[in-house]
Design a protein that fits this description.
85 residues; alpha+beta; YaeB-like fold; 5-stranded mixed beta sheet; 2 helices
Length: 85
């Protein structure tokens, strides 16, 4: 679990128990979030979004705003498991 601040809001980044990634990959996820920090305030409670990271793959986030600002990484899908039609 990581804590970070964006525009005065304190956010928590947590990882679903089914995800097993190394600490360096978790840090890469956090750094990726900093690149879109200005857009995080636009997500409502219950929203989800995907970020694509060249090294990790597609990262699925779930947004909670009540009772705290929490982003949960619910899944990470490596590029070899992407199916584009």
């Amino acid at each position: 679990m990581y804590r970070f601040s964006i525009d005065g809001d304190e956010w928590i980044l947590r990882f679903s128990p089914q995800i097993t990634i190394e600490a360096a990959e978790k840090q890469a996820v956090l750094m990726s979030l900093q690149q879109i920090s200005d857009k995080l305030g636009n997500f409502s409670h219950g929203d989800a979004f995907i970020m694509f990271n060249r090294n990790i793959g597609a990262i699925v986030f779930n947004v909670e705003r009540i009772p705290s600002f929490i982003l949960t990484v619910s899944n990470i899908i490596s590029e070899e498991n992407w199916y584009i039609q």
